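Office hours follow-up: a student asked to see two folded examples consecutively, so here they are.
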Amino acid sequence: MRLGEEFFHRDCLVAAPELVGKVLVRSFGDGRQERLRILETEAYRGEEDTACHAHKGRTKRTEVLYREHGRIYVYLCYGIHWLLNFVTGDKDLPQAVLIRACVDAEGPGKLTKRLKVDGSFNDTSVYTQDRLWVEDDGKRYPLACAPRVGIGYASQEDQDKLWRFKMVRRIGLTGGVGAGKSQVLSWLKENGKAKVIRTDDVAKALMEPGEEGYRQVVKALGDSILAEDKRIDRPALASLIFGDKKARDKVDGIIHPLVWKRIRKALEEAGEDMVVVESAIFSSEAFTWLDELWYVDAPEAVRKERLMESRGYSGKRCQAMMDSQPGLGDYRQKASRVIHNGGSWADTKRQLQGFLS
C-alpha cells in the first residue's frame, strides 16, 4: 500500500520511527523498479530544533520545509551528496524526516546515489510523484533509538536527543560443523556490536532447575536423569536419549518450541542494532521473525582438518558429523548471504565488512 496523507500529515517524531521498515520505491524511465527497505531515519523538528535547517527561519533553501506535508526535500550536503527527506506535519511548521539508510544502501549519500535521486526531486509531492514513493507491505520491525549524527553545529541539548530511529537487524546464522561459525560470531559481536544468541545456550538454560524445560523434561523422563543436587545429569540424559529415539524425540518436542519462544521474546526486547541467532537448524516459524539468513560455508576437507585439530576427532567421526548435518543446498533458497570461510581469515573479514556496510 502506497503511503498517503494520513501517514505524512503527522508530527515527524511519529512518522520517523514508523518509516523504518517501510519500502522506498524508485521507478526508472525504462520501467525498472528498485525497492529498498528503510533501515534508519532521523527527525528534524521546527525552528526550535538547532539541528534543523529551518532553525534560522525561511530561506530559499528551506521554503519547502514550510510547505504542506508530503513534499520531498532533497539538498546537497558538502557539495557532494544529495540527501533525501520527507516533509511531515502541518503547513508553516517546518519539520522533516531524513532517510539515513536502506537495506544494501547504508548511508544517506549512498542511498541517493544508488537510487539516482538528485535535486530534480526537490519540492515535488510524494503523493503524486511517479519516480519515488513509499509503500507499507505490512511488516513490522523492532527499533532502537539513538542521537542524530553529523550535527556538531547544534546545541548540546539537541545533539543528545534520541531522534534517530534504527531497525534492529535480526540475522540467523548457520553452517556445518567446522565451518567457523564461532569465529564469525565473535567478529560480529566485537565489530558489528551484535547481540549474539546461541540456541544451544538457550536450550541449556531451559534445563536448569526452575525453568519450564526442566520441569517438563523431568516429568516426561523421571527422576533417574537427576544428579544428587537435583540438577539434570547431562551425561545421563545424553546416554538415555542416544539409545532411545522415542525419548530423544520427546525431549526435542519439549525443548525446541521453548527455545524458539524464548528467542522470539529476546528479539522483540532487543535494543541493539543487530541481533544474530546462531543455530544448526532453524524452525520454519523462526524465518518469519528473522530478516536475513547468513550461511557460513567451507569445503569439507577444510572443516574436517579443523575438527581433527581442534577437537582431536578421527577422520571417520568428523565425516559422520558432517554427513548428519544439513548442507548448503538445504538452505540455498533461504540464505541471503553466504560467507565463504575456507580461505584466509582476512578474506572472511572482508566479506563480513562488506555485508555490514
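And the second, which I mentioned at the end of office hours:
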Amino acid sequence: MKKSLPFIFVIAILGSLSSCKNSTNEFKTIKPDVLKDKIAGGWAGKMIGVTYGAPTEFRARQIIYEDSIRWKPSDIKGSIWQDDLYVQLTFLMSMDKYGVDAPAKKFQEMFARAGYHLWHANMQARKNYFDSIFAPLSGSPEYNIHADDIDFQIEADYIGFMCPGMPNKACEISDKIGHIMNYGDGVYGGVFVAALYSEAYFESDINKIIEKALLSIPPESDYSKIINDLIRLHLNYPYNWRAAWKAYMFVYSKIRIKIFSLLNEGDGRLAH
C-alpha cells in the first residue's frame, strides 16, 4: 500500500450470484487508519466473543443461561484454539498461497490436511476430501448429513473483513467457501454474517446493517424468515429480550414438534 494515497477506494462490486441482490455501483472511500482500526476491532470482537461464550457451549440449550461468566482479558489467548478462529485462518492462508480466486478444492485441501480437530459439517467435509468428494458436493446433503449446521456461519467473519462495503463480493466468496462444508441455510448463515461486517464499514445503524445484509440471502430461505421473525419480536419487546426469547422458543418449539409428528406419521420406522 502506498502511503501517498490519502484514501483507499472501495468499489461495491456487482455479485454474480442470484441470491446476492444488494447491488450498487457507487464509489466509497475509507481512510487507511480507519480501515485498519475496523479490521482490528472485528478480529478483537471475534476473539473476545468466542472465549467469553465458550464456557456456556451446550449448557444453555432451550434455556436461558443464568450463571455468571468469569472472563478476564488474558483469556483471549485461548481463542486461537477455537475452531471459530483456526478454520478461517486456514482459509486466509489458502488465499495467501493460491490467491483469492483459487478454486474451492484448494481451500478444501488445506482445510482437510490441517492437523486440528473438526466437528460436524467441517469434519464430514474433511472426510469427503479424502474420499475424493469435493466442493460443492462435499457440503451437499447427499454427502454431508450436517449440511445445515452452523459451521460456515462461525468461520465466515474474515470474508466480511476483507470486503469493506462490498457485500456482493463477500457473497461471491462465501458461496465458494461455504459449500465446502455446508448447503442451503448452512451457507446462508455465513453469507449473512459476512454481509453484516461488509455493511458495517459504512453504516453505524444496527437496524440498517441487518436490513442491508438480509438482501444477500434469499428472502424465502428459512434463515431469512427466522431473522425477520426476530426483528419483529424485538419491535414487540424492545426492552425485554427475555420475553422476546420466550415468544421465539414458544413458536419454534411448536414447529419442531409438528415436524417430528409428521415424520412419525410418514415413516413407520420412526413411529416405532
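Two things to take away from it. The longest helix spans residues 241-266. Residues 62 and 253 are 9 Å apart (CA to CA).
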